[in-house]
Every structure is written in structure tokens, then in C-alpha cells.
Amino acid sequence: MVMKFFNKHKPNVYVQIGAMKSKYPQFNTKNLTNETVKFIGEIMVKPELPIYTVCIEYRGKLSPKVSVLNPKLVDKPPHYYKNTECLCLYHPDNFKWNSEKILAKEILSWTIAWLFFYEAWLQTGVWLGPESHHSLETIKEDKND
């Protein structure tokens, strides 16, 4: 409820920053504008797996972009947009992004899950996480973001 009240008085980027600092303090804020903000930080999925540095870009009404900066992903991983070098975290038919949603609540947890399933895929060759195949129309929509 506090988020809703706060959100009415300040641009949503400040709500995003506050939520991120609260839940994931290891993330730094970059390139802040009234509409966009990038968060860069490290994620440890499990102690035996690599630590990943990711960039999460809040873009207001447009879907957030999540990319892995380090370590470099293998060529052609599943559930990955090659044209934008971003993770595919959800299918737009199953989840509708809007500027009021909180990155730290939804997108970060899905990013952690994606990295876990990516590591499992590297070991087994099978994507063990949930998936929904994209139509050509969905892929075209992503290119326009």
C-alpha cells in the first residue's frame, strides 16, 4: 500500500530504485532519467555456480530488458533474444508488463530462475524451466521495443 501512495507523488523510477535497494542492495543505479533506469549488479544463484553480473533496464511502459554482462552466455541459449541480447523471462500472452510493476518483485526473481535453468541446460542440454514458444508475431513485437 505504501508503494501505491509513494508512486502517485514521484516518478516510478524512484519507486523502482527504492524497491531494488531494499531487496537487492548489491545493485547499482545507472543512467537515470524520469522514464528509465538501469540496475547493474551481481547474482549468486547457488554457491557452486558462477556469479552473474546482470543489467536490468526499467523502461516505463515498455517491457524491461534484462541482459547478462558476465560471464558471457554461450551462443544461442534458449529463451534469449539474439537481436537485443536480452533474456526472455515471460511470454507476453501470459504476463502483461506495465510501468506500475516492480522490477525487484517480479523481474529479478524471474532472472534468478532463468540463470538457474540456464545452468541446468548447460549440464543436461534440456531446458527444465517453464517455457512458451513464441510466434513470429511475438518476436517482431520484441524487436520494436
What can be said about the biggest beta sheet?
Answer: 4 strands, antiparallel
What's the rounded overall pLDDT mean? 86
Main sheet strand line-up = 1-2-3-4
| Cα distance spanning the termini | 30 Å
Helix content: 25-40%
CATH architecture classification name: Roll
Give the strand content.
Answer: 15-25%
Q: What count of domains describes the coordinates?
A: 1
- The value of Rg in angstroms is 15 Å
Structural class of the secondary structure composition?
alpha+beta
The shape, in one word, is globular
**CATH topology descriptor:** Ubiquitin Conjugating Enzyme
Order of helices and strands: HHEEEEEEHH
Number of helices: 4
Q: Tally the beta strands.
A: 6
CATH class: Alpha Beta
Low-confidence stretches: 1-7, 136-145
Structure description:
- With 145 residues, the chain is an alpha+beta fold.
- The protein has one domain (2-143): Ubiquitin Conjugating Enzyme (Roll).
- Helices cover 32% and strands 23% of the residues.
- It has four helices and six strands.
- The protein has helices spanning 2-9, 12-23, 107-124, 136-143; strands spanning 28-30, 37-44, 51-59, 62-70, 80-81, 86-87.
- It has a four-stranded antiparallel sheet with strand order 1-2-3-4, covered by helices on one side.
- Strand 1 and strand 2 (37-44) form a beta hairpin.
- The longest helix has 18 residues, at 107-124.
- It is globular.
